[in-house]
Design brief:
Blueprint (H helix, E strand, L loop, with lengths): L11 H10 L3 H21 L9 H13 L5 E2 H8 L7 H13 L4 E4 L18 E4 L1 H7 L6 E4 L6 E5 L6 H5 L1 E4 L4 E4 L4 H12 L15 E3 L12 E4 L1 E6 L2 E6 L6 H13 L5 E6 L7 E5 L5 H11 L3 E4 L4 E4 L2 E4 L2 H42 L2 H4 L6 H12 L12 H8 L3 H5 L3 H23 L1 H16 L8 E2 L7 H4 L4 E6 L4 E3 L6 E6 L4 E6 L3 E6 L4 E2 L4 E7 L7 E7 L6 E7 L9 E2 L8 E8 L3 E9 L9 E5 L5 E3 L5 E4 L3 E12 L4 E6 L4 E3 L5 E6 L5 E5 L3 E5 L12 E6 L5 E8 L4 E8 L8 E3 L8 E6 L5 E7 L6 E6 L7 E2 L6 E2 L4 E8 L14 E7 L18 H9 L4
Parallel strand pairs: 8-17, 26-31, 41-46
Antiparallel strand pairs: 1-3, 2-3, 4-5, 6-7, 8-9, 9-14, 10-11, 11-13, 12-13, 15-16, 18-19, 18-20, 19-23, 21-22, 21-24, 22-27, 25-26, 25-28, 26-32, 29-30, 29-33, 34-35, 34-36, 37-38, 37-39, 38-42, 40-41, 40-43, 41-47, 44-45, 44-48, 45-49
Helix pairs in contact: 3-4, 4-5, 8-11, 8-17, 11-16, 11-17, 13-14
Length: 885
């Protein structure tokens, strides 16, 4: 061990030398930390904007290219090759390679590479194989346009960045954590990236949204172009198999089937949802079965799954990339623009290189042609030195030098001397001319591409999409999500009890009065006899004040819940009456519903879920001076106001008692309901299509595109899948539906008009039959609908258009009836046109308005002789339909 020296014991001439060698420790830490942070940011965690790759990914691709012979390589061998360039361990290389391979773009893989949906890891590197894909070979590499540097040990050359001619960073996505910053760029759709790059080259605006290999649904309303501070919400795709079973078909990006299943089990254990069991049946496709408990609503359970489980996740993008050796926070559009313009520069560089190669080939071909056809090779036979040979060749070429684009060098002359006698003897001038002509044509094409670089780049992108875009369509459906209130969809996993005299409420007062079921996240509203009310969180036991007259679960912004109250003002002795809502409050704050005077007291109180107004009998005291000491009073006469209103004067005389005479009816009327076609939800916020005013007994009619209909209630928790719905409206038993469909058993197309005759709610009925292959083509609930039918009267005949109006000649029958058969050999498609206005009293709407013939672009037309030609399309069709007598 070295001896610790005390500077005071050393000669004075040594003091300055020791102090000069000392460094302040804080300075060391500052420098070392900055060096380390810079290294992690630049060399490990954050991708470069030029090729969208982190250093380890770039080295893997370079190593694979070095090994590429068209065959698969063991991943273990690729890891070993990569370690010649990468200064870190094999684990980081293997993990990075697996991540790239699972994205199915740059690699062709063989073996078990794991599954991002289930979270299963890849097999050991010695068992799995990899090679570069055709796409990777085409867009990532070009040694002629690559900038090179020495590897970490100086033994090898590696690329600074790879010349990638595609927005690879946005296609793959990336996530990395560095020192002091992180990056998270979500993957985007291959086809949309190509289209967006073309739009940039055409100076058109672009909008990009993420697309995930796991599919699902995404709300991009706050994506913010991938900038910091943005957010996307991603949901699993859940379908209702039946009233007792839900099936999850696609899961959110970043989750696995195991984590989703575990989150559902935890939510059930916590009482947030009520299910019997969860089964993960995932194999080739994701399939998680959620079996519901008896009596549980599937619609509410779906919302609860989104609210309390990993069936919905939020992801915050944070696009950070290395630009000119510094990290920058940018948008995905900025990244795409950089990549697109870089692709144009790389294509230009490749064209320039190709042009130079062609010019050199033309130059040499011309030199060779002159050298042989002008027999210059014979003039060198008498030369005694090599210098004399070169001089003789140069002299022979002198008359032709003006036609070359550059000067003839000594290397060119030496190359001519290397032509073999055999080649000279077999030289074919015609073939040489043909070759030079092809080279000139290719050179002209290259020059044209250089002059029209944008056009060339657009064609390059289109070629990429044509070759590699198949099967890469968008998997994640873009939707607008509604905000789910957790308190609305939470399962009733607790019970509310009240101790009225003592002033306690809670879920733990099991010996006291039971009020209702509730969830452990509900708020409870409490009214006391002194005219005070408050809202508090459900707890085991909480004191809210003595003499409780009413408590219940509080629903925020519920305008239909109306409280009817009569109270005695403690100062004036006047009895007041009021009706009011409590829509929004501050939790645990007391609100006075009276005039605020001491000794005020509530004489009558009711809570009415639908704004009912009862009739009460008022009995005055015997000592009052009023002539009439008993009278009836209806709350209908009182307007509904806010909770702070003092109310109206009921009587100035003292009241002995108040009794209920009769229950009232709602004073609010029906409920106006709208349908938001984007969210697939009902609402009262005037969003979307107005369905009508609903009261007790009203239903909603839903007609599905698969030929079924269903009646539902008008609960705002109902869910409707917009893509599956053809008609959604308020149910009217007298409304007639018109439908055109294909019946698979009969193999004919039918048109029918029918009324809904069933009244059972939440049960689907098929009005096109149950035969497999039957298909609904169009349906309308309009009074005077119009259908445009593209059809053929006979096989391979001309395509005809007909506008058909069912009203007036097709009878209304039962919903199970087949309807009238359409006399067409083939119906290509049916379009629903805007309905006709109601005809006047002396006017009958013509059943057939338009018939046009046009060739089918997909099928060849069959020639028909004059004797074989049928009557005009209109007459033949209308006769067969029986439209005219």
């Amino acid at each position: 061990m070295s001896e610790i020296l005390d500077p005071t014991e050393l000669p004075e001439d040594k003091h300055e030398e020791i102090l000069h060698d000392q460094t302040v420790v804080s300075g060391l830490y500052e420098n070392w930390f900055l060096d380390y942070a810079s290294y992690v940011i630049l060399e490990r965690a954050v991708p470069a904007v030029e090729d969208g790759l982190k250093p380890v990914q770039r080295r893997i691709l370079h190593a694979l290219k070095e090994m590429d012979d068209g065959r698969f390589n063991k991943v273990a061998n690729v890891i070993g090759q990569t370690m010649q360039y990468h200064p870190h361990g094999d684990a980081s290389i293997g993990e990075a390679m697996t991540t790239i391979g699972q994205k199915n773009l740059l690699f062709d893989t063989q073996g078990n590479w794991g599954d991002i949906r289930t979270g299963d890891g890849a097999a050991a590197p010695r068992y799995i194989e990899v090679r570069l894909s055709k796409f990777g070979n085409e867009v990532v590499f070009n040694p002629q346009t690559t900038e090179w540097q020495l590897s970490y040990d100086g033994r090898k050359k590696e690329p600074v960045t790879l010349p990638v001619k595609f927005p690879l960073l946005l296609a793959l996505g990336v996530e990395g954590i560095a020192v002091g910053l992180s990056t998270k760029i979500l993957p985007h759709n291959f086809i949309e990236l190509v289209d967006a790059s073309i739009s940039i080259l055409k100076d058109k605006p672009v909008t990009l949204y993420p697309d995930f290999p796991t599919g699902g649904l995404i709300d991009v309303s706050n994506y913010n172009d991938g900038h910091r501070g943005g957010k996307v919400r991603i949901r699993a795709k859940i379908e209702e198999f039946d009233k007792k079973t839900l099936i999850i078909r696609e899961i959110p990006f970043g989750t696995t089937t195991t984590s989703v299943k575990d989150s559902i089990i935890k939510a059930n254990d916590d009482g947030k949802i009520k299910i019997k069991k969860v089964e993960d049946l995932t194999s080739r496709e994701v399939e998680i079965h959620v079996h519901l408990a008896p009596g549980v609503s599937p619609d509410i359970t779906i919302d609860a799954l989104y609210a309390f489980t990993e069936c919905e996740v939020s992801v915050s993008p944070n696009a950070c990339v290395i630009i000119k050796d510094k990290p920058h926070f940018v948008s995905v559009t900025d990244i795409l623009k950089v990549n697109t313009h870089q692709t144009v520069r790389l294509l230009e560089r490749e064209l320039e290189i190709r042009r130079n190669e062609l010019m050199e080939k033309l130059l040499y071909s011309s030199l060779e042609k002159i050298f042989i056809e002008n027999r210059i090779y014979r003039k060198i036979e008498e030369c005694e030195t090599f210098e004399a040979v070169l001089e003789t060749i140069d002299k022979g070429l002198k008359p032709f030098k003006k036609q070359f684009y550059r000067e003839i060098t000594q290397d060119d002359l030496i190359r001519l001397t290397e032509i073999r006698i055999k080649r000279i003897s077999k030289y074919d001038g015609f073939k040489a001319e043909e070759l030079m002509k092809r080279l000139q044509e290719e050179l002209a094409e290259t020059e044209d591409n250089l002059a029209n670089l944008t056009r060339y780049a657009i064609n390059y992108y289109r070629d990429l999409q044509k070759k590699y875009g198949k099967g890469r369509e968008r998997r994640t459906e873009i939707r607008a999500f509604n905000t789910i209130a957790a308190s609305v969809v939470a399962a009733a996993n607790a019970k509310l009890y009240v101790d009225r005299e003592g002033g306690f409420i809670g879920s733990g007062l099991k010996k006291d009065e039971f009020v209702s079921d509730c969830s452990d996240i509900d708020d409870i509203i409490v009214f006391r006899s002194d005219g005070k009310c408050l809202v508090t969180k459900i707890q085991e036991k909480v004191f809210v004040g003595k003499d409780i007259i009413y408590c219940s679960v509080f629903k925020k912004n519920d305008e239909r819940k109306v409280y009817n109250m009569i109270y005695l003002d403690g100062k004036s002795g006047i009895s007041m009456v009021k009706r009011f809502n409590v829509t929004a409050v501050t939790r645990d704050r007391e609100y006075d519903l009276t005039m605020g005077n001491p000794k005020s007291k509530v004489l009558w109180f009711t809570a009415n879920d639908n704004g009912e107004a009862e009739v009460v009998t008022i009995n005055l005291t015997a000592q009052s001076t009023a002539k009439v000491k008993q009278q009836d009073f209806s709350f209908v006469t009182v307007a509904i106001k806010n909770r702070g209103a003092q109310g109206n004067i009921l009587t100035r005389y003292p009241i002995r008692k108040i009794t209920l005479k009769s229950g009232g009816v709602s004073t609010l009327g029906g409920m106006d309901i709208w349908y938001d076609e984007h969210l697939g939800r009902l609402n009262r916020d005037e969003r979307g299509k107005f369905l009508g005013n609903f009261d007790n007994g009203a239903s909603i009619l839903v007609v599905y595109k698969d030929g079924q209909y269903e009646l539902t209630n008008y609960s705002l928790t109902n869910r409707y899948e917009p893509a599956e719905i053809a008609v959604l409206e308020k149910f009217d038993p007298e409304r007639v539906l018109s439908a055109i469909y294909f019946e698979a058993n009969q193999k004919f197309h039918y048109i029918k008009r029918f009324r809904i005759e069933t009244t059972t709610q939440d049960k689907k009925f098929s009005f096109i039959g149950d035969a497999k292959g039957s298909k609904l083509l169009a349906v309308s609930s309009d009074r005077y609908p119009r259908f445009e039918i593209n059809h053929q009267m006979k096989d391979r005949g001309p395509l005809e258009k007909m506008v058909l109006e069912p009203e007036g000649f097709i009878d209304v029958r039962g919903w199970k009836a087949l309807g009238a058969k359409l006399p067409f050999a083939k119906v290509k498609d049916v379009k629903l046109l805007p309905p006709r206005e109601k005809p006047g009293p002396d006017k009958i709407a013509p059943p057939v308005l338009v018939m046009e013939q046009e060739p089918d672009p997909e099928e060849p037309l069959e020639e028909v002789s004059e004797t074989e030609q049928p009557d005009s399309a209109a007459s033949s069709t209308t006769k067969q339909l029986g439209l005219f007598s």
